[in-house]
Design brief:
The chain is mostly beta strands. It contains no helices and 11 strands. β5 and β6 form a beta hairpin. It is globular and about 40 Å long.
């Protein structure tokens, strides 16, 4: 079983920065894509950013130019560097991993709150 654990959430003022980390453990083989999604209260879960095993990245329109996803070279995982944060970035951020045959796996989520 694949386990994903997110860390790095918290409270930050608008304009500030945060870095989220996601570490994969357990059956962490064959992961094709890892990424981040977020869900704000009363809204649907939405794409933040993804990165493939060969480093192709994709970003949601609302975070392009402000967020950067990268692979964590120290372990099987991904980082999300968030800059110029806005109050509308407030949400629970979920780590995701996709493996062929097994499908999607999700972390438990980490809260990011941006105060105005």
């Amino acid at each position: 079983q694949l386990r994903l654990v997110e860390t790095g959430g918290g409270l930050v003022q608008a304009g500030g920065s945060l870095t989220l980390s996601c570490a994969a453990s357990g059956s962490a083989f064959g992961i094709n894509v890892m990424g981040w999604y977020r869900q704000a209260p009363g809204k649907q879960r939405e794409l933040v950013a993804t990165i493939t095993h060969d480093e192709i990245t994709n970003y949601g329109d609302s975070v392009k130019g402000r967020f950067t996803i990268s692979r964590d070279t120290a372990k099987i995982g991904v980082l999300l560097r968030m800059e110029r944060l806005k109050p509308e970035d407030t949400a629970v951020y979920y780590c995701n991993a996709y493996r062929p045959w097994y499908g999607d796996s999700w972390g438990q989520g980490t809260q990011v709150t941006v105060s105005s």
